[in-house]
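Loading example: each entry is read as two labelled lines plus one structure line.
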Amino acid sequence: MIPLLWACVGEAPPPEQGVERYEIATADGAGLVLHRHQNPGPSVLLVHGLSSNHWTWEIDEVRNLGHYLSNAGLDTWLLDLRGHGESRRAADGKPQRSGWVVDDYGRYDLPAAVDLVLAESGRDQVGYVGHSMGGMVAAIYAGTVAGGDEKLSSLVVVGSPIDFTDPDPLLDLGLHAAQFYGPFVGSLPTQAGARLQASLGGTPIPVDALLYNDLSEPYVELMYERVVSPISGGELRQFGALAGEGGPFVSRNGDYDYRASLARIRSPTLVVAGRADNVAPVDRVVPWFHEVGADEKRLIVAGRAAGFAADYGHMDLCFGDHVVDEIYPLIRDWVDR
Amino acid sequence: MTALLSIALAAPWTMTDVDVEHGGDPVVLVVTPGVEPEAFTGWSLALRRRGLDVHLATLEPTTGPEEAIHELHAALDELEASLGPLKLAGHGYGGLLVLLSGYAPERLALIAVPLAAQPVAVLAKGGDHGLPWPDELVGDYPAGPIHPDLSAAFAAWAAELPGYRVPDCPVLVASGNRDVVAPPEVVRPPSQGWPDRSWDRLGFLALEPERLHMEVLAHEGLATTVARFLDAP
């Protein structure tokens, strides 16, 4: 019973010293929280993925991309998309738990966050690093927000799928389930489930192998304890629409093909995929590299065949056992421009 | 094992019969040069248990890829003359040789067969891209003789694939996420426009252990998938 109660209540890690906290409102009334490691260097914005939060990038003191980039002199910002992490309240102070779709992250959350970074830093551009859905929403932003891409000095997408054709059976099942249940749920309490999992000592469950391949035990527990946030019913519905014949990644009303918008992205783009990523397999990530419109672009497949210490899984790319030595430097070098 | 692999046809190519009793349509597994036929025995028996009349075509080219392709086409023509219309299955570069030969089977299963060059990012660092892949990345297998020119061609094809004719028969393409020789990014998207093609991701989502390139030959689930595909009319 105690684990269950703790799972429902949960405790966020205490705020870090020297980190500034910003609360802003989006144009459609959502509330966002950003954390900033202020430095004189170029600005960079880190954005998490589906059912995650900004602790994806700062799971502890060591595996901490925020600190890493800050120590390199970069003005580093971490965003919690609406309903995730500390972005729990709308601009009017009411809890925000549901009522939005994936489109809203790219059309409202990113413009508000990017404009805040530019205003506070006094710069014209910001580097962007997105994990999984955090990369996908950059495609929404670049495709639908006028002048959006021009505000990005660089783009790094990490384990971000953009190709949903040839749906694999389990992915297809999940998407169909999302399509079916999406209309009936306000949000999916993945956070409570993850914290319960953590409180039970990280009992192996099948989802583990979906998420990581190179992650030692203490971090598995930390992941379930800190990194998971709920999924809104709207997200479920929009991802569910990818089901069936493997539909394109389009807006909720179907009027905009976000994959087609990759060609509009001119920012230098680094695409990172994990060889053992079962959430965003390499073949679903690679189209970023082939289709993005940037003249300067690079693809990295983090796996042993390419000289990495391990075949990286989905979350390994953010806080795996070798991420500090192998992935962080790649990101730093790309955004430090 | 030797008795099981009785040689049915003469060199330079051989057809090895692993069946005791012949059942359904004849199916030919193309053994990749450089791999001992024993590596295909388990897969052959698994297919046979599923009702297929399985034969192995083993190439023994004494020069480079041109001879291997020529040999394979001649072998398949002769097998067809004795067995009737063929259904084929090829693994790795053995499957690629089928495509390069231009042979037109009734049905074709391409298992872990690269259909496009790998993005350079996938290859190991170094001037030779780290090829050939070490065993720890492809899985243990009984290596067989291979002419250096053919071995060099295989390595070069990872970075630049020769042109081949898209098969117009029903095709099954399959690959696993951990396969460094034919990862899904050089299998699934390049085959998307083929006229009658099915796709299968091996070991997906950890419902079963993921297999390295050579390990799929002992994959019971794959045998079921391939048998169902090849057994179709």
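The CA atoms of residues 62 and 147 of chain B lie 6 Å apart.
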